[in-house]
UniProtKB/TrEMBL annotation:
Gene Ontology terms, MF aspect: chloride transmembrane transporter activity
Highest taxon in the source lineage: Bacteria
Chief place where the protein resides: membrane
Keyword Transmembrane helix included in the entry's annotation: yes
Gene3D superfamilies cross-referenced by the UniProt entry: Clc chloride channel
Its membrane topology: Multi-pass membrane protein
Subcellular location: Membrane
Keywords: Membrane, Transmembrane, Transmembrane helix
Protein name per Swiss-Prot or TrEMBL: Chloride channel protein
Keyword Repeat found: no
């Protein structure tokens, strides 16, 4: 049994830890929030400048912008390639959170170019990577060890997510949930919350605005709607799975092309222009107009979610720079609109449920996605969003838009999976003894054999 002196020492040590990480996370949140605000303002300005150009010139800028973005990353900071959150997860697991300082300006400029000219990508990944780069530099300045560096880098992820979407609590949980499948680290929760809240308020003080509560009416919670929630979760889980596979297919397609580095972004830009000529410009850029349209209950083309996945995969695989969460939210909202046409439910409600559910399935972050739904649409949506997010998370399987996520626990004991390895390297097998049909067949066969046994 601990002595009174040891108990007092324990409490004082914990108080010191709380004060230390509160201060560090506060500084990190302010720095990342200010950087995110700068990024968002520059992005708005860049997009406005491009849209002011004649349509012919505007579309010609797309392949040229992708080429410039790819060249900038390849020459100055190869670590900044692809979508940012994945690179941060990889850095945490493989390099104890060490991120080169050069990543910050290169990622900022490359993403601004990609999104301004109309590349289909998101804005949260770059902010997460920039935030992680800032906190990694802060950890180096303070001569932190590996564990403290990781904690501070996770704060950078949380702060970047919170400042971009205006969801401080979801941002805090996302930062600690996205690293592992089936495991969260509670010792990082306090600094993640502080950095997320600080980044959110810093961004608002610098003039960044976020939409008010978007959903005004929620159906009464009943058994019927619970069944629809279960069906919706299964549907959105399959959509998330398709989203992951499409992104992976496009990445492998561009990797296998025997083209020089500068040729791939030009090809990608040409493919994006061809898709725009066929289907219109709604699938370029962030796609926030389509998300808002779906959340107003307006009709969205039925194949919109698949096309957005494809164009996002092309943009990121050919050399464009950006994030993956905003396109995933587009996919979720559009899939919700499509599910509404199948089920007859309110399209606004279905889009509001689909938006976080597809994120939960694709990124393996059901808790963060549920909280995000509550922060965006109000607490009344929580029961429906939670059910759909958890089911979608399970249905999407052991796959992810972030291949460097570590698989800590399988999503179901019906499967045997390789644990403690990146999700894209794990193999799985069915645990046949847990399959209901197999067990019924086994016991049924034994019963039949027993009844056929001749009596003595």
């Amino acid at each position: 049994m601990n002595s009174p002196a040891q108990k007092v020492g324990e409490v004082l040590s914990l108080i010191y830890s709380v004060v230390k990480w509160f201060a560090l996370a506060l500084v990190a949140g302010v720095l990342v929030g200010a950087t995110a605000a700068l990024f968002l303002k520059l992005l708005e300005s860049g997009r406005r400048e491009v849209l002011a150009r004649p349509s012919t010139l505007r579309y010609l800028l797309l392949p040229l912008g992708l080429w410039a973005s790819a060249l900038l990353v390849a020459k100055l900071a190869p670590e900044a390639k692809g979508h940012g959150t994945e690179k941060v997860i990889e850095a945490v697991h493989k390099r104890s959170g060490r991120i080169a300082l050069s990543v910050i300006p290169v990622k900022l400029v490359a993403t601004l170019i990609t999104l301004s000219v109309g590349g289909s990508a998101g804005k949260e990944g770059p902010c997460a990577q920039i935030g992680a780069g800032i906190t990694s530099a802060l950890a180096s300045l303070l001569r932190f060890g590996d564990e403290d560096r990781k904690k501070l880098v996770i704060c950078g992820i949380s702060a970047g997510f919170a400042a971009i979407f205006g969801t401080p609590v979801a941002g805090a949980i996302f930062g600690i949930e996205v690293l592992f499948i089936g495991q969260m680290f509670y010792d990082v929760m306090l600094p993640s919350f502080v950095s997320g809240i600080a980044a959110y308020h810093t961004a608002t003080l610098l003039g960044i605005t976020y939409p008010d509560e978007l959903l005004r009416a929620v159906p009464d919670l009943s058994g019927g709607y619970l069944l629809w929630g279960l069906a919706a979760g299964c549907f959105f889980g399959l959509v998330a799975l398709a989203h992951i596979e499409i992104l992976g297919l496009t990445e492998r397609f561009f990797e296998r092309l025997r083209l020089r580095g500068w040729q791939k972004p030009l090809l990608g830009g040409a493919l994006l222009l061809g898709a725009t000529a066929l289907f219109g410009p709604r699938y370029l850029g962030l796609g926030t107009e389509t998300i808002e349209s779906a959340l107003r209950g307006e009709a969205v083309p039925h194949g919109a979610f698949a096309l957005k996945s494809l164009l996002t995969g092309i943009t990121l695989s050919c050399g464009g720079s950006g994030g993956i969460v905003t396109p995933t939210l587009f996919v979720g909202a559009a899939a919700g609109s499509f599910f509404s046409s199948l089920s007859g439910l309110d399209p606004l409600f279905c889009a509001a449920v689909g938006l976080p559910a597809v994120l939960a399935g694709a990124a393996n972050t059901p808790v963060a996605a549920t909280i995000m739904a509550m922060e965006l649409f109000g607490a009344r949506l929580a029961p429906f969003a939670a059910l759909a997010c958890i089911v979608a998370f399970v249905i999407s399987g052991h796959r992810s838009v972030y291949p460097s996520q570590i698989l800590a626990r399988p999503k179901s004991k019906i499967l045997l999976v390789d644990k403690a390895c990146p999700v894209d390297e794990s193999s799985l097998r069915r645990r046949t003894s847990d399959l209901l049909l197999v067990r019924l067949w086994y016991y049924g066969k034994r019963l039949i054999l027993r009844t056929k046994r001749p009596s003595r």
